[in-house]
Amino acid sequence: MIEFDRVTVTYDGASEPALRDVSFIVPEGELALVIGRTGSGKSTLLRAINGLVPHFTGGTLSGRVLVDGRDTRKYRPRDLADVVGMVGQDPMAGFVTDTVEDELAYSMESLGVAPDVMRRRVEETLDLLGLADVRDRALTSLSGGQRQRTAIGAALTSHPAVLVLDEPTSALDPQAAEEVLAALQRLVHDLGVTVVLAEHRLERVIQYADRVIEVPGGAAAVSTGLPAERMVTAPVAPPVVELGRLAGWSPLPLSVRDARRAAVALRRQLDSAAPVRPVAELGDELARCSDLVVGYGAVTALRGVSLSIRAGEVVALMGRNGAGKSTLLNTLVGILPPRSGTASTAGTDPLRTKPAQLVKAVGLVPQEPADILYAATVAEECAAADSDFKVPAGSCRAILERLAPDVAVDLHPRDLSEGQRLCLALAVVLCGAPPLLLLDEPTRGLDYGAKRRLVAILRELAAAGHAVVLSTHDVEMVAEVATRVMVLAEGELVSDGETAEVIAGSPAFAPQVAKILAPLPFLTVGEVADALDRAS
Protein backbone atom coordinates (compact mmCIF):
# COMPACT_ATOMS: atom_id res chain seq x y z
CA MET A 1 0.00 0.00 0.00
CA ILE A 2 2.84 2.42 0.92
CA GLU A 3 6.38 2.12 -0.42
CA PHE A 4 9.38 4.35 0.22
CA ASP A 5 12.19 3.62 -2.23
CA ARG A 6 15.51 5.31 -1.36
CA VAL A 7 13.77 8.54 -0.38
CA THR A 8 15.85 11.58 0.61
CA VAL A 9 14.22 14.90 1.49
CA THR A 10 16.22 18.13 1.73
CA TYR A 11 14.54 21.45 2.50
CA ASP A 12 15.69 24.63 0.82
CA GLY A 13 18.59 26.20 2.70
CA ALA A 14 19.12 23.17 4.95
CA SER A 15 22.67 21.88 5.37
CA GLU A 16 21.52 18.29 5.99
CA PRO A 17 18.60 16.21 4.64
CA ALA A 18 15.55 15.85 6.88
CA LEU A 19 15.31 12.23 5.68
CA ARG A 20 18.16 10.25 4.14
CA ASP A 21 17.88 7.16 1.88
CA VAL A 22 14.67 5.82 3.43
CA SER A 23 13.27 2.52 2.17
CA PHE A 24 10.40 0.47 3.64
CA ILE A 25 7.01 -1.01 2.76
CA VAL A 26 3.77 -0.83 4.76
CA PRO A 27 1.29 -3.46 3.51
CA GLU A 28 -2.46 -2.91 3.31
CA GLY A 29 -4.34 -3.18 6.61
CA GLU A 30 -1.43 -2.55 8.96
CA LEU A 31 -0.94 -0.01 11.73
CA ALA A 32 2.58 1.39 11.48
CA LEU A 33 3.92 3.44 14.38
CA VAL A 34 6.57 6.07 13.61
CA ILE A 35 8.88 6.81 16.54
CA GLY A 36 11.87 9.07 17.11
CA ARG A 37 13.02 12.02 19.15
CA THR A 38 11.54 15.50 18.77
CA GLY A 39 12.63 17.06 15.45
CA SER A 40 14.04 13.84 13.98
CA GLY A 41 11.97 14.02 10.78
CA LYS A 42 8.81 12.05 11.63
CA SER A 43 6.45 14.75 10.36
CA THR A 44 8.44 15.01 7.12
CA LEU A 45 8.04 11.28 6.58
CA LEU A 46 4.28 11.48 7.18
CA ARG A 47 3.83 14.45 4.86
CA ALA A 48 5.66 12.63 2.10
CA ILE A 49 2.90 10.01 2.11
CA ASN A 50 0.19 12.42 0.94
CA GLY A 51 2.44 14.63 -1.20
CA LEU A 52 2.64 17.66 1.10
CA VAL A 53 6.38 17.00 0.83
CA PRO A 54 7.55 18.40 -1.53
CA HIS A 55 4.50 19.94 -3.31
CA PHE A 56 3.50 22.17 -0.38
CA THR A 57 6.62 22.40 1.80
CA GLY A 58 9.11 22.88 -1.01
CA GLY A 59 12.55 21.34 -0.99
CA THR A 60 13.80 18.37 -2.96
CA LEU A 61 12.56 14.78 -2.81
CA SER A 62 14.71 12.16 -4.47
CA GLY A 63 13.75 8.53 -4.69
CA ARG A 64 10.14 7.48 -4.91
CA VAL A 65 7.06 7.30 -2.65
CA LEU A 66 4.24 5.09 -3.92
CA VAL A 67 0.77 5.13 -2.32
CA ASP A 68 -1.68 2.60 -3.74
CA GLY A 69 0.51 2.60 -6.85
CA ARG A 70 0.55 6.39 -7.26
CA ASP A 71 3.88 8.20 -7.35
CA THR A 72 3.58 11.25 -5.07
CA ARG A 73 6.01 13.22 -7.25
CA LYS A 74 3.37 13.14 -10.01
CA TYR A 75 0.25 13.30 -7.85
CA ARG A 76 -0.36 16.40 -5.76
CA PRO A 77 -2.14 16.21 -2.37
CA ARG A 78 -5.50 17.02 -3.98
CA ASP A 79 -5.00 14.11 -6.39
CA LEU A 80 -4.37 11.75 -3.46
CA ALA A 81 -7.29 12.98 -1.33
CA ASP A 82 -9.48 10.01 -2.26
CA VAL A 83 -6.79 7.61 -1.02
CA VAL A 84 -4.99 9.38 1.86
CA GLY A 85 -6.53 11.11 4.87
CA MET A 86 -4.15 13.34 6.84
CA VAL A 87 -4.36 14.74 10.38
CA GLY A 88 -1.55 17.11 11.33
CA GLN A 89 -0.18 18.15 14.71
CA ASP A 90 -2.10 21.44 14.73
CA PRO A 91 -5.81 20.75 14.08
CA MET A 92 -6.74 24.43 13.67
CA ALA A 93 -4.26 24.78 10.80
CA GLY A 94 -6.22 22.20 8.79
CA PHE A 95 -9.77 23.39 9.42
CA VAL A 96 -11.59 25.04 6.52
CA THR A 97 -15.13 25.53 7.90
CA ASP A 98 -16.68 27.09 11.00
CA THR A 99 -18.52 24.31 12.85
CA VAL A 100 -17.86 20.70 13.80
CA GLU A 101 -20.55 19.18 11.58
CA ASP A 102 -19.52 21.26 8.56
CA GLU A 103 -15.89 20.23 9.03
CA LEU A 104 -16.81 16.53 9.12
CA ALA A 105 -18.74 16.91 5.87
CA TYR A 106 -16.24 19.05 3.97
CA SER A 107 -13.94 16.33 2.61
CA MET A 108 -16.93 14.32 1.37
CA GLU A 109 -18.37 17.38 -0.38
CA SER A 110 -15.02 17.88 -2.13
CA LEU A 111 -15.05 14.26 -3.31
CA GLY A 112 -18.68 14.41 -4.51
CA VAL A 113 -20.12 11.88 -2.03
CA ALA A 114 -23.92 11.51 -2.25
CA PRO A 115 -25.85 13.62 0.35
CA ASP A 116 -27.54 10.63 2.04
CA VAL A 117 -24.17 8.87 2.41
CA MET A 118 -22.63 12.06 3.78
CA ARG A 119 -25.36 12.39 6.41
CA ARG A 120 -24.93 8.78 7.56
CA ARG A 121 -21.14 9.03 7.80
CA VAL A 122 -21.30 12.30 9.74
CA GLU A 123 -23.66 10.75 12.30
CA GLU A 124 -21.48 7.64 12.61
CA THR A 125 -18.37 9.74 13.14
CA LEU A 126 -20.02 12.02 15.70
CA ASP A 127 -20.94 8.95 17.76
CA LEU A 128 -17.62 7.18 17.19
CA LEU A 129 -15.55 10.09 18.52
CA GLY A 130 -17.94 11.44 21.16
CA LEU A 131 -18.63 14.71 19.34
CA ALA A 132 -22.43 14.62 19.12
CA ASP A 133 -22.88 17.19 21.91
CA VAL A 134 -20.67 19.75 20.13
CA ARG A 135 -21.84 19.17 16.54
CA ASP A 136 -23.11 22.74 16.17
CA ARG A 137 -20.28 24.42 18.09
CA ALA A 138 -17.84 26.82 16.45
CA LEU A 139 -14.42 25.21 15.99
CA THR A 140 -12.79 28.18 17.72
CA SER A 141 -14.82 27.49 20.88
CA LEU A 142 -13.68 23.88 21.29
CA SER A 143 -11.10 22.60 23.75
CA GLY A 144 -7.81 21.31 22.34
CA GLY A 145 -8.93 17.71 22.67
CA GLN A 146 -12.27 18.37 20.99
CA ARG A 147 -10.46 20.04 18.09
CA GLN A 148 -8.18 17.05 17.72
CA ARG A 149 -11.10 14.61 17.65
CA THR A 150 -12.84 16.80 15.06
CA ALA A 151 -9.73 16.77 12.85
CA ILE A 152 -9.54 12.97 13.09
CA GLY A 153 -13.24 12.70 12.28
CA ALA A 154 -12.88 14.98 9.24
CA ALA A 155 -10.23 12.61 7.87
CA LEU A 156 -12.29 9.50 8.64
CA THR A 157 -15.55 10.50 6.97
CA SER A 158 -14.15 10.21 3.44
CA HIS A 159 -13.22 6.55 4.19
CA PRO A 160 -9.59 6.78 2.94
CA ALA A 161 -7.60 3.64 2.22
CA VAL A 162 -4.63 5.21 4.05
CA LEU A 163 -4.92 7.29 7.21
CA VAL A 164 -1.89 9.34 8.33
CA LEU A 165 -1.89 10.89 11.80
CA ASP A 166 0.71 13.09 13.48
CA GLU A 167 0.43 12.93 17.29
CA PRO A 168 -3.29 12.00 17.21
CA THR A 169 -3.72 11.57 20.97
CA SER A 170 -1.45 14.36 22.25
CA ALA A 171 -4.32 16.61 23.38
CA LEU A 172 -6.73 13.85 24.39
CA ASP A 173 -7.58 12.69 27.89
CA PRO A 174 -6.88 8.98 28.57
CA GLN A 175 -10.48 7.88 27.95
CA ALA A 176 -10.79 9.83 24.69
CA ALA A 177 -7.41 8.52 23.54
CA GLU A 178 -8.52 4.94 24.16
CA GLU A 179 -11.71 5.56 22.17
CA VAL A 180 -9.75 6.99 19.22
CA LEU A 181 -7.25 4.14 19.26
CA ALA A 182 -10.07 1.60 19.47
CA ALA A 183 -11.67 3.26 16.43
CA LEU A 184 -8.36 3.05 14.53
CA GLN A 185 -8.09 -0.62 15.47
CA ARG A 186 -11.53 -1.29 14.00
CA LEU A 187 -10.54 0.52 10.79
CA VAL A 188 -7.40 -1.59 10.48
CA HIS A 189 -8.86 -4.98 11.39
CA ASP A 190 -12.40 -4.72 10.04
CA LEU A 191 -12.02 -2.46 7.00
CA GLY A 192 -8.40 -3.04 5.98
CA VAL A 193 -7.42 0.62 6.30
CA THR A 194 -3.67 1.25 6.44
CA VAL A 195 -2.83 3.55 9.35
CA VAL A 196 0.50 5.34 9.80
CA LEU A 197 0.84 7.43 12.94
CA ALA A 198 3.60 9.24 14.77
CA GLU A 199 3.21 9.36 18.53
CA HIS A 200 5.48 10.25 21.43
CA ARG A 201 3.24 8.72 24.10
CA LEU A 202 4.18 5.17 23.23
CA GLU A 203 2.51 3.84 26.37
CA ARG A 204 -0.80 4.47 24.63
CA VAL A 205 -0.15 2.91 21.23
CA ILE A 206 2.78 0.49 21.16
CA GLN A 207 0.65 -2.59 21.90
CA TYR A 208 -1.57 -1.86 18.89
CA ALA A 209 1.22 -1.45 16.33
CA ASP A 210 1.94 -4.09 13.67
CA ARG A 211 5.29 -2.52 12.86
CA VAL A 212 7.55 0.26 14.13
CA ILE A 213 9.33 2.72 11.86
CA GLU A 214 12.19 4.33 13.78
CA VAL A 215 13.37 7.76 12.59
CA PRO A 216 16.54 8.51 14.57
CA GLY A 217 17.37 11.79 12.83
CA GLY A 218 20.73 13.05 11.61
CA ALA A 219 22.78 10.71 9.46
CA ALA A 220 21.41 7.55 11.08
CA ALA A 221 19.29 5.31 8.87
CA VAL A 222 15.52 4.91 9.23
CA SER A 223 14.76 1.31 10.20
CA THR A 224 11.66 -0.85 10.62
CA GLY A 225 10.75 -3.99 12.54
CA LEU A 226 8.29 -5.68 14.85
CA PRO A 227 7.43 -3.66 17.98
CA ALA A 228 8.85 -6.19 20.46
CA GLU A 229 12.13 -6.35 18.53
CA ARG A 230 12.51 -2.57 18.14
CA MET A 231 11.78 -1.85 21.81
CA VAL A 232 14.79 -3.90 22.97
CA THR A 233 17.20 -1.16 21.89
CA ALA A 234 14.99 1.79 20.96
CA PRO A 235 16.18 5.07 22.53
CA VAL A 236 12.54 6.07 23.19
CA ALA A 237 10.44 3.57 25.10
CA PRO A 238 7.31 3.64 27.30
CA PRO A 239 7.43 2.89 31.05
CA VAL A 240 6.19 -0.68 30.56
CA VAL A 241 9.24 -1.38 28.39
CA GLU A 242 11.63 0.50 30.70
CA LEU A 243 10.36 -1.58 33.63
CA GLY A 244 10.84 -4.75 31.59
CA ARG A 245 14.41 -3.72 30.78
CA LEU A 246 15.08 -2.99 34.47
CA ALA A 247 13.68 -6.35 35.57
CA GLY A 248 15.34 -8.27 32.73
CA TRP A 249 12.12 -9.68 31.29
CA SER A 250 12.29 -11.48 27.95
CA PRO A 251 10.40 -11.02 25.75
CA LEU A 252 9.71 -7.42 26.70
CA PRO A 253 6.03 -6.79 27.43
CA LEU A 254 4.26 -4.08 25.43
CA SER A 255 1.01 -3.96 27.40
CA VAL A 256 0.10 -3.63 31.07
CA ARG A 257 -1.63 -7.01 30.90
CA ASP A 258 1.51 -8.82 29.72
CA ALA A 259 3.67 -6.91 32.20
CA ARG A 260 1.46 -7.86 35.17
CA ARG A 261 1.91 -11.52 34.26
CA ALA A 262 5.68 -11.08 34.11
CA ALA A 263 5.84 -9.02 37.33
CA VAL A 264 4.83 -11.68 39.87
CA ALA A 265 8.39 -12.16 41.13
CA LEU A 266 9.11 -8.42 41.04
CA ARG A 267 6.05 -7.69 43.18
CA ARG A 268 7.25 -10.23 45.75
CA GLN A 269 10.71 -8.63 45.70
CA LEU A 270 9.24 -5.19 46.33
CA ASP A 271 6.55 -6.30 48.79
CA SER A 272 8.28 -4.87 51.86
CA ALA A 273 9.75 -1.82 50.10
CA ALA A 274 8.25 1.65 49.83
CA PRO A 275 9.03 4.46 47.39
CA VAL A 276 10.96 7.45 48.69
CA ARG A 277 9.41 10.71 47.53
CA PRO A 278 10.65 14.22 48.30
CA VAL A 279 8.37 16.31 50.49
CA ALA A 280 7.55 19.75 49.10
CA GLU A 281 8.51 22.67 51.32
CA LEU A 282 5.57 25.03 50.98
CA GLY A 283 5.94 28.78 51.07
CA ASP A 284 3.68 31.78 50.51
CA GLU A 285 0.36 31.57 48.72
CA LEU A 286 0.82 32.57 45.05
CA ALA A 287 -2.70 32.03 43.70
CA ARG A 288 -6.21 31.70 45.10
CA CYS A 289 -9.68 31.10 43.69
CA SER A 290 -12.86 31.46 45.75
CA ASP A 291 -16.21 30.21 44.40
CA LEU A 292 -14.96 30.95 40.88
CA VAL A 293 -17.51 30.80 38.06
CA VAL A 294 -16.34 31.40 34.46
CA GLY A 295 -18.21 30.89 31.20
CA TYR A 296 -18.31 31.42 27.46
CA GLY A 297 -21.70 32.64 26.26
CA ALA A 298 -24.21 29.99 27.31
CA VAL A 299 -21.49 27.54 28.41
CA THR A 300 -20.39 27.54 32.05
CA ALA A 301 -16.79 26.26 32.08
CA LEU A 302 -16.02 26.58 35.82
CA ARG A 303 -18.55 26.16 38.60
CA GLY A 304 -17.72 27.38 42.10
CA VAL A 305 -14.02 26.40 42.08
CA SER A 306 -12.05 27.22 45.24
CA LEU A 307 -8.35 26.44 45.58
CA SER A 308 -5.01 27.74 46.82
CA ILE A 309 -1.56 27.35 45.23
CA ARG A 310 1.57 27.84 47.34
CA ALA A 311 5.25 28.25 46.55
CA GLY A 312 7.15 24.97 46.28
CA GLU A 313 4.26 23.01 44.77
CA VAL A 314 4.02 21.28 41.41
CA VAL A 315 0.29 20.91 40.86
CA ALA A 316 -1.17 18.77 38.05
CA LEU A 317 -4.58 19.82 36.76
CA MET A 318 -6.33 16.82 35.23
CA GLY A 319 -9.74 15.91 33.82
CA ARG A 320 -11.55 15.11 30.60
CA ASN A 321 -11.32 17.33 27.52
CA GLY A 322 -13.56 20.34 28.10
CA ALA A 323 -13.52 19.97 31.90
CA GLY A 324 -12.32 23.58 32.38
CA LYS A 325 -8.56 23.17 32.84
CA SER A 326 -7.45 25.74 30.28
CA THR A 327 -10.20 28.09 31.43
CA LEU A 328 -8.79 28.03 34.96
CA LEU A 329 -5.26 28.82 33.78
CA ASN A 330 -6.48 31.63 31.52
CA THR A 331 -8.47 33.13 34.39
CA LEU A 332 -5.39 33.16 36.64
CA VAL A 333 -3.55 35.34 34.12
CA GLY A 334 -6.47 37.67 33.48
CA ILE A 335 -7.36 36.48 29.97
CA LEU A 336 -10.88 35.55 31.04
CA PRO A 337 -13.10 37.49 33.48
CA PRO A 338 -15.05 35.60 36.17
CA ARG A 339 -18.83 35.75 36.14
CA SER A 340 -18.74 35.52 39.91
CA GLY A 341 -16.29 34.65 42.65
CA THR A 342 -12.67 35.78 42.67
CA ALA A 343 -9.29 34.79 41.28
CA SER A 344 -6.08 36.36 42.56
CA THR A 345 -2.44 35.98 41.60
CA ALA A 346 0.29 37.15 43.98
CA GLY A 347 -2.43 38.78 46.06
CA THR A 348 -3.83 40.92 43.24
CA ASP A 349 -6.66 40.66 40.73
CA PRO A 350 -5.01 39.76 37.37
CA LEU A 351 -7.70 41.70 35.49
CA ARG A 352 -6.72 44.90 37.29
CA THR A 353 -2.96 44.39 37.20
CA LYS A 354 -0.84 46.07 34.55
CA PRO A 355 0.74 43.55 32.15
CA ALA A 356 4.25 44.73 33.03
CA GLN A 357 3.59 43.87 36.67
CA LEU A 358 1.58 40.70 36.02
CA VAL A 359 4.32 39.10 33.91
CA LYS A 360 6.66 39.36 36.90
CA ALA A 361 4.21 37.34 39.01
CA VAL A 362 2.87 34.70 36.62
CA GLY A 363 3.85 33.14 33.29
CA LEU A 364 1.61 31.08 31.00
CA VAL A 365 2.69 28.71 28.24
CA PRO A 366 -0.56 28.23 26.27
CA GLN A 367 -1.77 25.11 24.50
CA GLU A 368 -0.74 26.65 21.17
CA PRO A 369 2.91 27.75 21.63
CA ALA A 370 2.83 29.91 18.50
CA ASP A 371 0.47 32.30 20.30
CA ILE A 372 3.41 33.79 22.22
CA LEU A 373 6.08 33.59 19.49
CA TYR A 374 6.43 36.69 17.29
CA ALA A 375 10.04 37.01 16.05
CA ALA A 376 11.35 35.98 12.64
CA THR A 377 13.96 33.52 13.95
CA VAL A 378 14.59 31.41 17.03
CA ALA A 379 17.65 33.51 17.87
CA GLU A 380 15.63 36.75 17.74
CA GLU A 381 12.91 35.19 19.91
CA CYS A 382 15.48 34.24 22.54
CA ALA A 383 17.16 37.65 22.42
CA ALA A 384 13.79 39.40 22.82
CA ALA A 385 13.01 37.26 25.88
CA ASP A 386 16.37 38.14 27.45
CA SER A 387 15.65 41.83 26.85
CA ASP A 388 12.03 41.71 28.05
CA PHE A 389 12.90 39.99 31.31
CA LYS A 390 16.17 41.95 31.77
CA VAL A 391 18.29 38.83 32.22
CA PRO A 392 21.84 38.24 30.93
CA ALA A 393 22.14 37.71 27.18
CA GLY A 394 22.00 34.04 26.30
CA SER A 395 19.75 33.02 29.22
CA CYS A 396 16.78 32.01 27.08
CA ARG A 397 19.05 30.26 24.56
CA ALA A 398 20.63 28.23 27.38
CA ILE A 399 17.23 27.02 28.57
CA LEU A 400 16.24 26.11 25.01
CA GLU A 401 19.45 24.15 24.47
CA ARG A 402 18.76 22.27 27.67
CA LEU A 403 15.23 21.35 26.57
CA ALA A 404 15.92 20.77 22.86
CA PRO A 405 19.67 20.66 22.12
CA ASP A 406 19.41 20.39 18.32
CA VAL A 407 17.18 23.36 17.44
CA ALA A 408 18.64 25.51 14.65
CA VAL A 409 18.46 29.12 15.85
CA ASP A 410 18.32 30.62 12.35
CA LEU A 411 14.94 29.01 11.59
CA HIS A 412 11.58 30.75 11.80
CA PRO A 413 9.56 29.34 14.76
CA ARG A 414 6.85 28.12 12.36
CA ASP A 415 9.45 25.93 10.63
CA LEU A 416 10.17 24.03 13.84
CA SER A 417 8.48 20.76 14.72
CA GLU A 418 5.56 21.00 17.15
CA GLY A 419 7.76 19.73 19.98
CA GLN A 420 10.60 22.14 19.18
CA ARG A 421 8.15 25.05 19.02
CA LEU A 422 6.81 24.09 22.44
CA CYS A 423 10.36 23.96 23.83
CA LEU A 424 10.98 27.47 22.49
CA ALA A 425 7.80 28.79 24.12
CA LEU A 426 8.77 27.09 27.38
CA ALA A 427 12.23 28.63 27.22
CA VAL A 428 10.77 32.11 26.62
CA VAL A 429 8.49 31.91 29.66
CA LEU A 430 10.99 30.08 31.89
CA CYS A 431 13.53 32.79 31.11
CA GLY A 432 11.52 35.19 33.29
CA ALA A 433 11.44 32.66 36.17
CA PRO A 434 7.98 33.83 37.30
CA PRO A 435 6.99 32.91 40.87
CA LEU A 436 3.90 31.15 39.44
CA LEU A 437 4.33 29.14 36.23
CA LEU A 438 1.25 27.88 34.35
CA LEU A 439 1.71 25.24 31.64
CA ASP A 440 -1.14 24.12 29.36
CA GLU A 441 -0.39 20.68 27.89
CA PRO A 442 3.41 21.16 28.22
CA THR A 443 4.38 17.75 26.80
CA ARG A 444 2.57 17.82 23.43
CA GLY A 445 5.11 16.83 20.80
CA LEU A 446 7.88 16.10 23.33
CA ASP A 447 9.77 12.81 23.33
CA TYR A 448 10.71 11.03 26.55
CA GLY A 449 14.14 12.65 26.68
CA ALA A 450 12.72 16.17 26.39
CA LYS A 451 10.12 15.36 29.06
CA ARG A 452 12.84 14.18 31.43
CA ARG A 453 14.71 17.45 30.92
CA LEU A 454 11.52 19.44 31.52
CA VAL A 455 10.84 17.47 34.70
CA ALA A 456 14.32 18.34 35.99
CA ILE A 457 13.74 22.06 35.34
CA LEU A 458 10.33 22.04 37.04
CA ARG A 459 11.78 20.29 40.09
CA GLU A 460 14.52 22.92 40.30
CA LEU A 461 11.95 25.72 40.10
CA ALA A 462 9.84 24.18 42.85
CA ALA A 463 12.91 23.69 45.05
CA ALA A 464 13.80 27.36 44.50
CA GLY A 465 10.40 28.49 45.80
CA HIS A 466 8.36 28.78 42.61
CA ALA A 467 4.95 27.16 42.09
CA VAL A 468 4.07 25.24 38.94
CA VAL A 469 0.57 24.37 37.72
CA LEU A 470 0.40 22.12 34.66
CA SER A 471 -2.79 21.18 32.86
CA THR A 472 -2.07 17.82 31.29
CA HIS A 473 -3.37 14.46 30.13
CA ASP A 474 0.13 12.96 30.40
CA VAL A 475 -0.28 10.68 33.42
CA GLU A 476 3.36 9.54 33.22
CA MET A 477 4.56 13.15 33.48
CA VAL A 478 2.24 13.70 36.46
CA ALA A 479 3.65 10.64 38.23
CA GLU A 480 7.20 11.91 37.71
CA VAL A 481 6.91 15.52 38.83
CA ALA A 482 3.61 16.47 40.50
CA THR A 483 3.38 16.79 44.26
CA ARG A 484 -0.38 17.39 44.14
CA VAL A 485 -3.19 16.58 41.72
CA MET A 486 -6.49 18.40 41.17
CA VAL A 487 -9.18 16.80 39.02
CA LEU A 488 -11.85 18.87 37.30
CA ALA A 489 -15.11 17.41 35.95
CA GLU A 490 -17.82 19.45 34.24
CA GLY A 491 -16.18 22.61 35.57
CA GLU A 492 -16.17 21.46 39.20
CA LEU A 493 -13.17 20.54 41.37
CA VAL A 494 -13.91 16.93 42.32
CA SER A 495 -10.57 15.81 43.75
CA ASP A 496 -7.57 17.52 45.32
CA GLY A 497 -4.77 15.69 47.11
CA GLU A 498 -1.28 14.22 47.02
CA THR A 499 -0.33 12.68 43.69
CA ALA A 500 -0.17 9.04 44.78
CA GLU A 501 -3.43 9.37 46.71
CA VAL A 502 -5.35 10.71 43.68
CA ILE A 503 -3.94 8.77 40.72
CA ALA A 504 -2.64 5.42 42.02
CA GLY A 505 -6.00 3.66 42.11
CA SER A 506 -7.65 5.56 39.26
CA PRO A 507 -8.49 3.44 36.17
CA ALA A 508 -8.14 6.55 34.00
CA PHE A 509 -5.21 8.43 35.55
CA ALA A 510 -2.97 5.68 36.99
CA PRO A 511 0.47 5.46 35.30
CA GLN A 512 1.64 2.18 33.81
CA VAL A 513 3.91 1.21 36.71
CA ALA A 514 1.08 1.67 39.22
CA LYS A 515 -1.16 -0.62 37.16
CA ILE A 516 1.56 -3.25 36.74
CA LEU A 517 2.64 -3.36 40.39
CA ALA A 518 -0.73 -2.72 42.11
CA PRO A 519 -1.44 -2.89 45.01
CA LEU A 520 2.15 -1.78 45.70
CA PRO A 521 2.48 2.04 45.94
CA PHE A 522 5.00 2.60 43.12
CA LEU A 523 4.28 5.14 40.36
CA THR A 524 7.45 5.33 38.23
CA VAL A 525 10.30 3.16 36.98
CA GLY A 526 12.71 5.44 38.87
CA GLU A 527 11.00 4.65 42.16
CA VAL A 528 11.27 0.93 41.45
CA ALA A 529 14.97 1.20 40.51
CA ASP A 530 15.67 3.16 43.71
CA ALA A 531 13.87 0.56 45.85
CA LEU A 532 15.80 -2.30 44.22
CA ASP A 533 19.10 -0.46 44.80
CA ARG A 534 18.28 0.04 48.48
CA ALA A 535 17.32 -3.63 48.85
CA SER A 536 20.54 -4.93 47.27
Automatic annotation (TrEMBL):
First-listed, main subcellular location of the protein, grouped into a coarse class: membrane
Residues annotated as domain ABC transporter: 2-243, 287-515
Domain of life the protein comes from: Bacteria
Gene3D superfamilies found in the cross-reference section: P-loop containing nucleotide triphosphate hydrolases (3.40.50.300)
UniProt KW keywords: ATP-binding, Cell membrane, Membrane, Nucleotide-binding, Repeat, Translocase, Transport
Places the protein is found: Cell membrane
GO function term, MF aspect, one: ATP hydrolysis activity
Keyword Ribonucleoprotein in annotation: no
UniProt-listed InterPro entries: AAA+_ATPase, ABC_transporter-like_ATP-bd, ABC_transpr_CbiO/EcfA_su, ECF_ABC_transporter_ATP-bd, P-loop_NTPase
Membrane disposition: Peripheral membrane protein
This protein's record includes keyword Methyltransferase: no
A cellular-component GO term for this protein: ATP-binding cassette (ABC) transporter complex
Function text: Probably part of an ABC transporter complex. Responsible for energy coupling to the transport system.
Family to which the UniProt record says this protein belongs: Belongs to the ABC transporter superfamily.
Protein name: Energy-coupling factor ABC transporter ATP-binding protein
